[in-house]
Amino acid sequence: MVKLKKYKKGIGAWISSTKGQRFFNFAYSIGAAVVIWGALFKILHLPGGNMLLSVGMGTEVLMFVLTAFDRPPREYNWEKVYPELDRKDDDDDEKSQALAPEDEGNEDAHATETHAASVVYVGQRPGAQPATDVAPQPAVAQQQAPADVASATQAYIEQMAATTAQMQQLQQSTEALNKVSEILLESYRAITENSENITRSSQGYVQQMGDLSHNIQGLNTIYEIQLRSISSQLDSIDRVNQGIASLRYDDRGWGDARSVKFINFTVEDFCEDAAAALPLLRKRFSKVGVLGHSEGGTIAMMLAAEGKADFIVSLAGMAISGKETLVMQNRQAMSAIGLPKETVDTYCNSISKALDEIASGKKASEINIDGMPEALKPITIKSLQQADTPYIRHFLNVDVSELLSKIKCPVLALNGTKDTQVDCTANTIQLEKGLTNCKHTIKKVDGVNHLFQHCTTGNVVEYQQIEETIAPEVLQTVTEWINSEL
Predict the structure, then answer these.
(1) How far apart, in Å, are the Cα atoms of 400 and each of 96, 318, 395, 431, 435?
(2) In the 8-state DSSP scheme, what is residue 454?
(3) Among 170, 284, 344, 400, which has the highest number of CB atoms less than 10 A from its own CB?
């Protein structure tokens, strides 16, 4: 117990010293700065935010613990310096009566004696017994008392000055701590608000990315639906104009999905399948063209560049590279759910580099995604794992932009302005730029999605909610253009 009091007294003395006060100011400031720095890291989702907050808040806690050992302000007993302060009113009244003369005859004598002994009465009242026990005060003692009072007063003034300086320093430290507390409060409020926004955005993004992942994983099913739609569209064309014949077939692997994996085929495989049908048709018809939707439109351009078609019709065909198309799909999906532009840019830059590595042959597990925001890493890993297939590797490297100048036959290219899978603007610009050696018609169809349905958003999840198979104006445009080329 004695040792504990000794340590406590030592800590209190050190805290009250100049070095202790400097240490406290330094620790408070550094601790607050580390907390703010950690809060900034948390807001920006940078690594190390938790550690910085822990160190900063731990420092603040230590400072508050040490403050418990600080000594309270010193109380001074001024009555010991000025004894008059310790006298009671009754004594003052008695001495006042004792000092008051009873008659005018003794007034001068009493006054003289009183002045000689300062405030100590050494005379006697008329009629009183002689004060034989009281000895007159020496002159040296009378002069010593004022000197002691002056010395004590000077020490008091110095102590008050030191106390005032300490109080000012304490006030400054308190004001600084109040400002830091306000900053921390604002930072915590911002962290809370941003965390809520990020949580909502991340949930929406995960849903959108889940749709995209499902789209990649079930790519075969989607294209089957599209092919069926194209088949019904061509039936409509046949009804509009009986002079246009068509050959329709299913993708390889259709009807045997259990033993055949669609992801092992490539765009080149499907291009060879389409090319195989052309010689058969030429045995019966003088002019043979290729109409393709989406990936089929890209295949139509590939066949035209090889000189195997008399004309082609590209419906939402991809004229830019496969990698650019996938990056644009991701950017559109993230922007649609309201994520900040900085987050979208960071993600798209990272996913672009990751897709380059996938295209070069790297495994998804070998790709570094440290630059990706933490909230988006899980869905990114899942997407890259699904992209680690022969189909996607080849799709990323598909780029018909270099083949467009080799096309010599007439071309009709239609793209929907609300297409979220094959960007309308980027692809029509590339077609206008590349088709330099052929007659071509390039049109943007307002208000339709990737399947040429009139729509609201153009998102993939909206396809099955629309009853329209294809916009009538698209059918009319295709029919009129083909008849003009026959």
Answers:
(1) 119, 8, 11, 10, 11
(2) B
(3) 400
CA distances for 212 relative to 36, 219, 242, 376, angstroms: 38, 10, 39, 14
Closest C-alpha among 29, 65, 22 to residue 179: 29
The answer to whether residues 449 and 416 touch, using CB atoms and an 8 Å cutoff, is yes
Sequence-distant (6+) residues with CB within 8 A of 395 are 266, 267, 322, 326
Residue (of 123, 118, 127) closest to 98 by Cα position:
123
Q: What are the backbone dihedrals phi and psi of residue 468, each rounded to the nearest 5 degrees, phi first?
A: -65, 135
Residue that is written with structure tokens 């009244």 in the block = 93
Residue 81 to residue 28: CA distance in whole angstroms: 39
319 in Cβ contact with 399 (< 8 Å): no
Phi and psi, residue 293, nearest 5°: -110, 135
Beta bridge partners of 313: 291, 412
pLDDT in tens, 408-429: 999 999 999 999 999 999 999 9
**Residue 221: predicted pLDDT:** 52
> Do 315 and 452 touch, CB atoms closer than 8 A?
yes
Beta bridge partners of 293: 315
Write out the two tokens for 44: 């920006």
Q: Kindly report the backbone phi and psi dihedral angles of residue 287, in degrees, each rounded to the nearest multiple of 5, phi listed first.
A: -120, 130
For the residues 440-462, what does the mean pLDDT come to? 94
Tokens at 195, concatenated:
């965390």
d(CA 140, CA 227): 124
| Alpha-carbon span 49 to 43, nearest angstrom | 9
Residue-wise pLDDT for 279-311, tens only, equals 999 999 999 999 999 999 999 999 999 999 999
Compute the mean pLDDT over every residue in the chain, rounded to the nearest whole number: 75
